[in-house]
Prior knowledge:
By secondary structure, this protein is mostly helical. 73% of the residues lie in helices and 2% in strands.
Amino acid sequence: METQATVRGASSKMIPLALPKGEERLCELCQKRAQLQCNLCRVTFYCDAEHQQADWLGIHEKICPLLIPIRTTTILSLQRAGRIETQLKKAELIEICRLAAQRKLSERKHSEALPAAQFCLRCSIDVHGSSTGQLVPAYLLLAEANMGLGNLAVVADLLSQAEWAVLKSPECGHAVQQQLHRSLGHLYTATGNLETALLHFANDIYYASEEYGLDSTVTCDGYFFMADVFAKQGKMSITRSLYSAVAHTWHCHLTELLHSHVQFFQNPDELLEPSYDKGRRAEGDEMLRTMLEFEQDNSRKEPAQIALVAHCLAMLWFLEGDNLKALGFGGTALQASQLIPNRDLTEAIRGLLQLVQSLQTGPPPGSG
Length: 368
């Protein structure tokens, strides 16, 4: 209902485009001849109502008034100070669009991410030029949105442009290189070129380890994607080994987060609650569920791996505030842990279950 209301609201904010003879405007999304105009900013145009509504939902609602000063020519805007101010406003728009696209992508709303990613790229070109490494983040956002929509030819073209920009920009850092190779790995996995995909994921891991460290969850994600490729090749022993490495990295990471979370409740005046990236939560949940299902479906189940991964999921959902899911995965972890001699893991799982149950029946620890 909320989405329908938003679309109806968007429709009421457009008017037919009437221009003097000889003048032409292009659609914000497809660059075809425009027939409609945004009634609020009056500097944004569309070929039809469908594209206007898509842009409104994707990004225009957030940036509509911000477009007026950068798309309106005044005497001040033609002066040097005015041009500098316009560039600063465009830089602000790039960041707004980048964050909006990332949020939509983390929610798997690929079609809604497209307008934000497209505007981010166009604005980046305006600010930085057409052949610079600073365009790569926008290319990658747009590629990810199109990957989710199955537009693989478009993805290949975008990533080719991103590769060229990186080659021409030696100053591109490890983080940008890592993101590019991960995107290329996903593309070649989707097109069935698995050996090339493995090469790019190996580069992904290298650059991630340089930027974030060997024990980072960002680095271990590369191992997960390599494992997925090996699974497609039928190399299950390698897949299981890589999954085990990923599970141990996530377990250490989530254990630290859980410890900080509990300390915060026990000493709220001494420790700030740790920040928790919900986009990373969604990615972690998807990977950990994949690994858990892989192990549970295996004819030669390893209880230790099931306990470890299920414990990760229990901690993940406890940190997210979903106690029912935390209890469910915690129960799975406890059952599997009782089949192995690792008492430390069993005690840790029991401790988490007791903590969750105490929150179900009473105030948070340390609140009394």
